[in-house]
Amino acid sequence: MSTILLMFLLLGAPDKPLGRPASADVLFRYLPTNADLVLTVDSGTYVPTLYKRFDELAKQPFVTGSPAFLRQLSWARRKLDDQIAEWKQVFGVDVRRASRFVSLALRFVGPELEPQGILVIGGAIPQQTARALARTMRLEKKMQRVGKALLFLADRRSKPGVGWLPGGTLLIGTDAELLRAAKLSGTPKAPQNSLIAKLRTMHGPSVLMSAAFSPPAALKNKIEPEMPSFLRNLLRDFDAIAVSVTPRKMMLKSFSSSSPVLERHKRFFSALGSFVKASHFVAKGMISMVDGLLYDSMTTKPAWFRALSDQRAALVRYLGKMLPDRSIKARVSVKGGHFVQLEVEGATVSLPMFAIFGVGFSFMGFSRPHQVRTVTHPVAPKPIRRSHP
Fold first, then answer.
1. Same domain, 191 and 231
2. Half-sphere exposure of 169 (CA within 13 A, CB side)
3. 240, CA 20 to 30 Å: which among 108, 181, 322, 324?
4. Main-chain dihedrals φ then ψ at residue 151, nearest 5 degrees
């Protein structure tokens, strides 16, 4: 039941940004340029959209007519509301309205590959939120000003710290030194081969989410043995991978200095593109399958199943509305001999995302190494016991 609820919420991808999304200069301004992982999210769109989907779901006949489904939805909404209310009480901020964007940059350092980085929450975060957060870290007496920034930093370099800037931007660093080194005035110029520079080339006025990952060699060596063989073969020798998402377009890029790796990823991206182009037909087929499965409520089925069966027509209409029949275009190209990219456009982004992850996890499941138990037999015959006279 929880899985079904999550699916309904995820299918409701934002149709358009709410307000004006943050520019690339704002998103990447305070992030270290040597990061191994970078992530940005338009929280000013995603959070209100999530609440909108909750409200829409709660009014659907297949929810109101199913007590079990309604209980699950009410429980999930209550948990979310309680968490937001707790944050507001402790930190003095309503994240539903105050957060405009979230940016994260991490590096994996040392023999233990410890993640270090900065989390940036921009929008209208009040100064009291930074002070309250610093108080929970016992840093309220460690306040200092760097330009216009207000910093709460521990004496030891390896301790986390908090920063706040006028305009409502909150910075949380795993390492106080990272906050000191952050460019608190002026936009840092990222090196051409950095993840930030790569994401900048993919950033547009309606990007809802972007991410890039370039694992250091030590991290690759650590995680590769644990990977399914499918992923291990696919990701071997790549330099970086990046993705950006808008309401009607998704771009996926793989970077490598190796021609064979680019060719391998080009072929894989072409396969993903074919799956994505067919995804809306697959979705329509799945809706028809749901329609057929729910046609007969059958008394042997659980109560929630029978309740959904009674509201089968409403459920099918809702799913059809969430997954409109639109043509999807997918293009694969190799650019400059340095990266291969897959561009998908023409449909709600939830469709290609489900197609890509569905195909990926299917391959991962089939490609997992299985242990084969071998049967061994003794080579030498058992010794013969001789009876003594």
1. no
2. 22
3. 181
4. -120, 140
